[in-house]
Specification:
globular; 24 helices
Amino acid sequence: MIWLMNTGIKVTLAMLFVVGVGGSWLALTVPQPTKLSWLDKLALSWFLGVGYFAWLVSVSLLLFGRMYLWVWAASAVVCLIAVVRYRQVIFSAPKLGPIRWPRLRFTWSHVVTFLLLTVVVVQSAYVLAASLSSSLAWDGVFVWAIKAKAIYFDMTTHPGALLKYLSTDMVSLSNPEYPLGLPALMAWIFVWVGGIDEQAIKVIVPIFFVSLLALLSSRLMRVTTTAQALLLVALLASVPLLIGLSMTGYADVPLAALFGVAAAFGAEYLRQPTASSRDLTVVLAASMILMKNEGLILAVLLGVFLCAALLLTGTRRVTKEFVIRYLGGLLIIGGPWLLFAFGHTYKRKIFLPLTLSVLMQNKSRLPELVGYMWQLLKTFNLFGYIWPLVVIFALARLSRWKHREVIFLGLLCAAPLVVDIFIYVFSAWDPYLWHVRTSMDRLILHLLPIGVLLMGHLWGGGSDRSDQDSPLEASQA
C-alpha cells in the first residue's frame, strides 16, 4: 500500500509537470484566449504539454541521435519564464467583493443537465479506475511501451538504445516507424518512478479521454444548449470501443482526442475567427503527427478542408495567412520527427507501392472493404448509436449545411472513411482482410469526436451561445 501511494504521488507530479509546461506554452505563445474556463485551460495545457514533450524527443533524436534527460528537465525554464512574465497576475491578491449566495432554481432543464453531467463524470471515473486495475493490452506492451523503455534506457543505463531500436529490424513487429508521442509520456513516468512500471503508465490514456470530454463539452456549449452538449458528450463517453481502448495503452484514443479538439477549434475559427482559435487549431493538428502515422493524414485533411471552408466566404488574405501558419506549424512541430523517421527508422513492408497499376490490380477489394466498413459503422457493440445518429442529424437538418463550419466538419467526417478504404487496397498483408479486421475499427474510432461535433453544429443554431449563462458555466465562473 505504501509503495502504491508513493508511486501514485510520483505519477501525479509527473503529469502535473507536463500540464505546467503545457500551460506555460499556452500563456506564452497563444494569444490570450477569451471565453475559456479553467477546465478548458487545464485540458489544453495537457494537450500542449504532450505535444511539447514528444517534440523534444524528436528534436533530440534529430540533433544528437539519442535522448537526454536534461532536455526534458530544461523544460522547467519555460514554466519559470511564464511565471516571471505573468507574476503580477499570479501573485496579485484576489479582489473579493461582497459574498452573495446564489439563488437555487430547480427546473427540468437543470435536472436533465445534472443527470447528463453525472453520466459523463461516472464514465470518466470508470475509465480511469478500470484502466488502473488492468494490464496493458498486446499493442500497448509490444508497440508503445517498448518504445518508452527504449527512450528510458537511452537516457539512463544504455545510451544509444533508442536509435538502435528504431533503425534496425530486431523488433520489427513492434512498428519502430511509429511516432514517439505516447511513448515519450510513458518514459517520463518511468523517470519519475525510478524504473520500468507498466502499471503506472496506464493513467495516461484516461487523461486524454477526460480532457477530450471536457473540451468537447465547452466547445459544443457555444453552439447548443448545455443539456444538448452534455447529451452528445455522454453518448461519446458511452461508446464501447472508446471505453475499451482507453484501458489498453494504445495511441488511438490520444490521436482521436487531438483530432477532435483540433477540429473543434477549427470549426470555432470558421464561426468567429480569433487568433487563439486559429493558433490552437494549428498546434493541436501538428501534434497529431507525433502521436500516430495516421495523424499526418488527418492533419493534412483538416488543413485542406479548413482552407477550402475559408475560401467559401473569407478573403484571400485571411486564407493565405492561415495557410502560412498551418504549414509552418506542421513543419516546426511535426517536421523534426518526419525528417528523422525518413532517414533512420526501420520500415516494415505494410503497403504495396501507391501506383495506378496496383490500384487496378486490387480494385476487386473495394466492394468487400465498403461492405465491411458499413457493418462496423452500424455495430452497436463498437460505436453505440453515434454513426446512425450522425446520418439522422445530417438528413434532418439540411438547412444547416449552408454554414461553412458544418461543411468543414462533414467533409472531415466523411473523407477519412474514403481514404481508409483506399489505403487497404494497397495493403501488403496476405490475406489483406486480416489487416482490415485488426485495424479498421480503430481508424473509424479517430472520427468519433468529429461525428459528435457535427451533430452539435447541426443541432445548434447559428448564433454564439457562449454569452448565455448556463448552470454548468455559472458554476465554473
